[in-house]
Design a protein that fits this description.
alpha/beta; Rossmann fold
Length: about 375
């Protein structure tokens, strides 16, 4: 089993300030395994409820009574299946003598987010649980992690055929079972078509009108489908950055399939050879490197930037009051572009990093540095 020590530390740190911690991420990303690993290090009584278990659902048939039992820790998995629990947790967390700590797990559905926001504000810390990162799988797994994606069962499959079958089954189960269980009534084939369209537009600016025309529906309906997949953490909607700099800037978001393995399955890519010969290889690398970068930086203040004149920046973040830019290039030896210099000048960047799949870090210009993706933790911890 791959140890996810940084996430365990995040959970422990969060419980120092709030009574409830919520782990958010897509199904099968490892939230339950992470919760069990956390529970093993606890002292005192630990009660665990898995709301996919009929037995545990019966145990919570009178939820306030069950959750008021004198436990030190309570873990609730797949909490979105009983959204009424959010209000009860609020009551329990607000008791003046409350000592119980709650770890709740959900598949990042819109229902879950809405319920927590309305009922538990100020009482809960959110921790995003992404797929596996290079710091967890080791630098020499970069090509495999890029091809297979970060879902543990797919990455750890005995061979690529088994991993591919797992991802195909995941997509089918997600669309046919998981989405309907959230109370969302969209035909699975319609949502599959939309998801495949997102895969083909991976790394491009969102055009709701074009999606609507292709699906034979309205732009607002297409946006609703996008919100569903983004809310379930299988699609990333990266917002644009724009300010008054005297240039016409793009104000629509960019869209990505968050897991590179799912992207490749949706595109019919089943091998490293097929990936490198595919027209979306560069966009695939961009999305994969973007996700790995956001594991370290966080996504709350992450943007892309683009102008109608053609200048663009794949990722813009602010750290310590300074702006840093990132470009993701599938190249053996990336160089500078006019667009990079425009981004530095227009946005006032402290530095711009060109992240590529090589092994050597080197300067490209006074404020522009090429760096391997495997150097990212050191880069962020030191140079930034």
């Amino acid at each position: 089993m791959i140890q996810r020590t940084h996430l365990l530390k995040e959970i422990r740190t969060a419980f120092e300030t709030v009574p409830i911690v919520s782990l958010l991420g897509p199904r099968q990303v490892g939230k339950t395994t992470l919760a069990h690993a956390f529970a093993q290090g606890l002292t005192g009584r630990v009660d665990v409820y898995d709301l996919e278990s009929p037995i545990d659902l019966r145990r919570l048939s009178v939820p306030q009574m069950a959750l008021s039992e004198p436990a030190d820790w309570i873990v609730i998995d797949e909490i979105q299946r009983k959204p009424e629990l959010f209000e009860i947790l609020r009551v329990l967390a607000d008791r003046h003598d409350a000592k119980t700590r709650f770890l709740i797990l959900g598949s990042a559905s819109p229902t879950l987010v809405r319920g927590v926001t309305e009922s538990l504000a100020g009482r809960v810390a959110f921790i995003d649980v992404p797929g596996l990162s290079l710091t967890e799988t080791a630098a020499d797994t970069l090509r495999k992690l890029w091809l297979d994606g970060g879902f543990p069962r797919a990455f750890l499959a005995p061979d690529s055929r088994v991993g591919q079958k797992w991802r195909e089954d995941f997509i089918r189960t997600f669309l046919e079972r998981d989405i309907p269980e959230l109370g969302i009534r969209v035909p699975s084939e319609t949502l599959r078509r939309f998801w495949m369209m997102v895969a083909h537009y991976h790394g491009q600016v969102w055009n709701g009108a074009e999606f609507g025309r292709s699906l034979g529906t309205s732009e607002s309906t297409a946006r609703r489908y996008l919100d569903i997949l983004a809310g379930a953490y299988v699609v990333r909607v990266l917002p644009p950055w724009f300010e008054n700099i005297g240039k016409r800037q793009v104000k629509s978001p960019k869209i990505y399939v968050r897991d590179s393995g799912l992207l490749h399955t949706l595109l019919g890519i089943d091998s490293a050879h097929a990936l490198m010969g595919h027209p979306k290889a560069g966009a695939s690398w961009e999305g994969f490197a973007l996700e790995q970068t956001l594991v370290h930086l966080g996504a709350r203040n992450a943007f892309f930037w683009s102008t109608h004149a053609g200048a663009e920046l794949d990722l813009l973040v602010t750290l310590g009051g300074k702006r840093f830019g990132f470009e993701f290039k599938l190249s053996d030896a990336p160089g500078t572009t006019r667009s990079m210099h425009t981004a530095i000048e227009s946005l006032g960047l402290e530095k711009l990093f060109v992240i590529y799949p090589g092994t050597a870090a080197y300067p490209l210009a006074p404020q522009i540095h090429a760096a391997p993706l495997t150097d990212l933790p050191t880069l962020i911890g030191g140079a930034l």
